[in-house]
Automatic annotation (TrEMBL):
GO terms for molecular function: dioxygenase activity; L-ascorbic acid binding; metal ion binding. Residues 193-293 form the Fe2OG dioxygenase domain. Belongs to the iron/ascorbate-dependent oxidoreductase family. This is Fe2OG dioxygenase domain-containing protein.
């Protein structure tokens, strides 16, 4: 099982990256063109959520979600000590002997605890310069027993961190609900049995960083992401067709809108393309927490956000349906910042404009506002993906979904 992990390849002292990591010339980072700014994304002080300044903070969050899709937060309630602990435990894990790390290795993206490399080794054509440990972490009691037991304090330290992060997420979701003009607990109730995953990303020094990515441009398929990163730059966000470097600010978290939040907001808030680049001198660690709806949650804009001037942009779908498409898509080289996951959100689940026929066809697979999850719905989705409404019409099990 040797050579499965990038960390061990990088540690061997390679001077050139293997060909499987080299991006086409048209799809390289072009690091010299990246814009560097000290205020690349808004920095919001969450302390104001607890007092008379709450409405001002809500407005700041609204503007950041609408204009940037990303913002940083300080005074978030998570101690510097806890941040230091989780960073240290991640570093210790990736320094363990290869044989110990490989105990959790898997290339199956459905596994709830797994160590792997790149992004999706089963489908991608070009690898990314990253190893990662992915953990499901809510409810804790369902998953902790699967986690690595080395380093010895891993489970305890990660569990404490996950619990604290969940508290931060719930506060932010309340604020986002309010910023959309909804009840404070709307999103909390909407997403059903919450899902929480986290990753520990390890980006080793790369001898030729201009030829590859830590992660290529992508949007996040979940609801919202909370990112902790060390002091080494690497995150970049696409804005107005330009990549902007987001330099680390100590003891802050970066929050970004995911695809599900874009749909829930009826396109008011944006799930923005972002990427991770690497460097030749320093390793980098980032720890994102992905907050998700339950698999059977029906995602769609609330009635309060839909009217004649703001018609629904997307049809309703389940998060499980979306996530399956995200993981099973065939990866193609990105062109001009285009990403398959973003394409799904904006095209596959989008209601075509000025098309009553398509709108009627979408309603065929709903019943009392709930998306049907049986074979009829799956067949309809497959047809829309592969051939459109004309093909759907030719299938009797789709034309008569009540049968």
């Amino acid at each position: 099982m040797s050579n499965l992990l990038l960390a061990d390849l990088a540690a061997s002292g390679v001077k050139q990256i293997p060909s499987g990591y080299i991006r086409p010339i048209t799809d390289r980072p072009n690091l010299s063109d990246v814009q560097i700014s000290h205020d690349s994304i808004p920095l919001i002080d969450l302390h104001g959520l607890n007092g008379p300044s709450r409405s001002l903070v809500i407005k700041q969050i609204s503007q950041a979600c609408e204009n940037d899709g990303f913002f940083q937060v300080k005074n978030h309630g998570i101690s510097e000590e806890m941040i230091g602990k989780i960073m240290n435990i991640a570093r210790q894990f990736f320094k363990l002997p290869e044989s110990e790390r490989l105990k959790t290795y898997s290339d199956d993206p459905t596994k709830t605890t797994r160590l792997s490399t790149s992004f999706n080794v089963n489908s991608e054509k070009i690898s990314s310069w990253r190893d990662f440990l992915r953990l499901h972490c809510y409810p804790l009691e369902d998953y902790m027993h699967e986690w690595p037991c080395n380093p010895p304090s891993f489970r305890r330290d990660v569990a404490e961190y996950c619990t604290s992060i969940r508290g931060l997420v719930l506060r932010v979701l309340e604020a986002i609900s309010e910023s959309l003009g909804l009840e404070r607990d709307y999103i909390d109730k909407k997403i059903g049995k919450h899902g929480q995953h986290m990753a520990m990303n390890y980006y080793p020094p790369c001898p030729q960083p201009e030829l590859t990515y830590g992660l290529p441009g992508h949007t996040d398929p979940n609801l919202i992401t909370i990112l902790l990163q060390d002091e080494v730059p690497g995150l970049q966000v696409l804005r107005d067709g330009k990549w902007i470097a987001v330099n680390p600010v100590p003891n802050t978290f970066i929050i970004n809108i995911g695809d599900q939040m874009q749909v829930l907001s009826n396109d008011r808030y944006k799930s923005v393309l972002h990427r991770a680049v690497v460097n030749s001198e320093k390793e980098r660690i980032s720890i994102p927490t992905f907050y998700c709806p339950s698999q059977d949650t029906v995602i769609g804009p609330p009635e309060e956000m839909v009217d004649d001037d703001h018609p629904a942009v997307y049809r309703d779908f389940t998060y499980g349906e979306y996530y399956e498409k995200f993981w099973n898509r065939d990866e193609e080289p990105r062109r001009s910042g285009e990403d398959d996951a973003q394409l799904m959100a904006r095209e596959f689940f989008k209601l075509p404009e000025n098309s009553d026929e398509h709108r009627r066809s979408i309603r065929l697979v709903t019943e009392n506002g709930q998306l049907k999850t049986g074979s009829t719905c799956r067949a309809f989705n497959e047809i829309i993906w592969n051939g459109g409404l004309a093909a759907a019409k030719s299938r009797p099990e789709v034309s008569n979904p009540a049968a």
